[in-house]
Structure formats: structure tokens, C-alpha cells
Amino acid sequence: MKKFALLSIVVLVLVIGAGALASSSANSGTSANHSIIITLFWIALLLVLAKVASLLEKIGQPSVLGELLMGVIIGNLFLVGINFFEPIKSDTLLAFLAELGVIILLFQVGLESNIAQMKKVGLRAFLVAIVGVICPFILGTYIVGPLLFPGLSSTVYLFLGAALTATSVGITARVFKDLGKLKTSEAQIVLGAAVIDDVIGLIILAVVSAIATIGSISLGTVSSISFKAIAFLIGAIVLGQFSAPFIGKLFSKIHTGIGMKFTLAVSFALVFAYLAGKMGLAPIVGAFAAGLVLDPVHFKTFKRPKAIDDLLESSKTLPYKHREKLKQLAHHHSEKHVEELIEPLSYFLVPLFFITTGMNVRLDSLFNIKILIVAIGITLVAIFGKYVSGFFAGKVNKNLVGFGMVPRGEVGLIFASIGSSLGILSHELFSVIVIMVIFTTLLTPPILTYLIKKQEKPLVS
User: Fold this and answer.
1) Do 133 and 21 fall into the same domain?
2) Digit-coded pLDDT (tens) for 42-68
3) What is the pTM of this model?
4) Is residue 80 domain-shared with residue 100, that is, in the same domain?
5) In this structure, are 74 and 113 located in the same domain?
6) Distance, CA of 307 to CA of 348 (rounded, Å)
């Protein structure tokens, strides 16, 4: 009944929206805000559809996959004569909000993977990450790309290889967490390697994007861009670590409330994204660096959430053992408060990115047997390129580590979206990459679940 009610609401929104669009189209000449009014409706509709797509979670799949598939479905309804959603593809305001969503997403990834944790990852995670980047990049750029898509420019092959280097830490982490295996050696290696992958992948993305813009792939150019990307990341992190506490104290003197805390965090991310853009790098590189820089200690002069204070006040009447446990719990949630503040903003913006990205997938291009073969070939290479990294994980379950590195998820979509926006990737190749992201994202959770449960069997017997 709940599913039916939800679907009924969606249908109602569609009907009302169709009437509103028809009415406003008829009177478009009388309103200067016509395009903004239409965009408001599209935003509401896409957010509702994103929540409908989250039904996929009930069968153990991540919500990002549902949002992506929803975008693919509504973006290809024109193939059956339904053009209702086509105006979304050319809505510039919606495109801006989607880009802002991906900046917030990378800021969240940076917040969840702080520098202290990265230092503790160890040599095994570093080796897994390096192999997990180099192997798919070489396969995509120099072997599979030219073999399956001959005659294209070297920049296209570079972007294909770059898209294959991504690893979605969120999808794998969720599987390990749901099965209570987040603290195992395999999980720690995969998560640590995925964080390093993100850093290396973002540098590769910055280099390839700049090469595409400049139109040159000389050794000097690559070296210059690589140095700029690495220098920005290191400089942003070092300067950010020194400046963040000072900025935090300064703004807390104005106001110590949650609103100021939220403003400081988001502004920090946007300024870093701006600086990255001015340096010729992708803004998401700056947002990621901002997330790495910001630690809970930078907000210690701000007020704690009221719920934390209430919890600590109530704990005073409890026995010592329970009081200490509640203090630890309160401290944990207090440290995670910035991430929790950003979450509502991501709930609003990030689904717009995934759905609009899915809408750019042209399923009619896959009707071509050649394109379909390419999509399957790229997917197999994407899986193999990450799976082999598991053999460098040491004395652990190598299959578990290898397959844990496979999902591309949101990071792969970011790469594909930037390649498309720069005019590097054609509709066909963009669709192939997104299909690869869908397959690797869809296949990983059930494979990891099977491997983990299989590993547990000897312990049970």
C-alpha cells in the first residue's frame, strides 16, 4: 500500500505538472520568470522520482544506482514518443544545481576520509590503490580504447582510462557495514585504498581535463599540470590546516550557533572549489581538499548540538559505566556534526546530479551491436583492472579485496560527466561508461555478500 501511495503521488505530480507546463507554455510570453517557474517544477519532480528510485534499496542495491537508472529511464522515453522530460536536458539552472551537487558530494567524501586516517592505512592499501589505478588506466587508454573504438583522439582514450581508475568507497563500505565486517582487515584495506584512489584519480582527472582544454599532451605539459595538481592539493591541505582553526575561532566570535557552523563549512568548500578552478583544475578537486582539511577540532569553539547537551545532562543521574558510554556516544556524534549538517544539502542537490547524468545516457546507441560489445568489453576490463589489485593486499582474502575495489559508482559518473561537458566524450562513449558504472555498481554488492558469507562458513562449522 505504501508503494502504491507513493507511486500515486508521483502520478499526481506528473498530471498537475503537465497541466501547469501546458498552461505556462501557452502564456510564456506574458511572464519574464517563465523558465524559473518551470525549473521549480522540474526540481520537485526529479527529487520525488529520486525517492521513488530508492525502492531499489529494498533489494540490497545502493540508492545511487536507483537514481541513475531512473535518469536513464526518463531520459530515453523519447524513444517511445514521450517527450515530456526532454526540456530538462537543456535547463541551464538545473545543470548548475547538478554541478553544485557534485561539489557538495566530493566535499562529503573529503570529510569522511581525513588525513589522519589516510596515514594509518599502511603499505598494503597503498599498493592496492596504485595497482588499482595503473592497471585499468593502461588497459583503457592504450589497449581497450584503441581496440574497441579505433580512430579517436588520444585525449578520448586518456579520459576513458581515467574513468576506469575510479573506485566508489561508499558502495563497498555500505556492504561491509551492513554485514558487520567494517573492522576486518579486508574492509580496512579496501576503504583505505579507495581513499588513495580518489586522490590519485582526481589528480588524473585534473591532468586529463587540462590536456583536453589546452589540446596538448607533451611531456612538459603533463609534468606541469601534474605538478600544479599535486601542488594545489598539498598547498590547500597545508594552508587549510593552518588557517582553518584561526578562521573557526574568528567566526565563532561573531556567532557560535549551528547556522554559522554550516555557513563556514559550505563556504570553505566553495572557496576551495573556486581556487581549484582558477588553477585550471576541476572544482571537485578543491571541494575534496576542503573536506580533507576540515576536522572536528576546527569547530570546537562552536556550540554543540542541543541534543548532545540534553543527553549529557540526562546522563548525570546514571551509573558511572552507563554515563561514560553515553559520553563516548555524545562525543562521536559531536565530531560527526559537520557531516550531518551537510547531509540535508546533499539530499537536495546530489540526486539532481545522478538523475540528470543518467538522462544523458542514450540507450538507442546500445541498439548498435558494436556499441553493445564495447560496453560489455569496457565493463569486463573495469572489473579485471580492479580485481588484480587484490593480489597485492598481503595475507588476506584477495578475492574480497579485489571485488571490493570494483564499483565505480558516483566517482565514475563524475568523470564521465566532466568528459561529456568538455566535449571529449561522444554520446556513445558517454553511454558506454555510464553502463559500465551501472554494471560494476550492480554486481559488486551481491558478489561481496557471497564472498563474505562463504568466508564465514568454516568458522560456523
Assistant:
1) no
2) 999 999 999 998 887 777 677 777 888
3) 0.71
4) no
5) no
6) 24
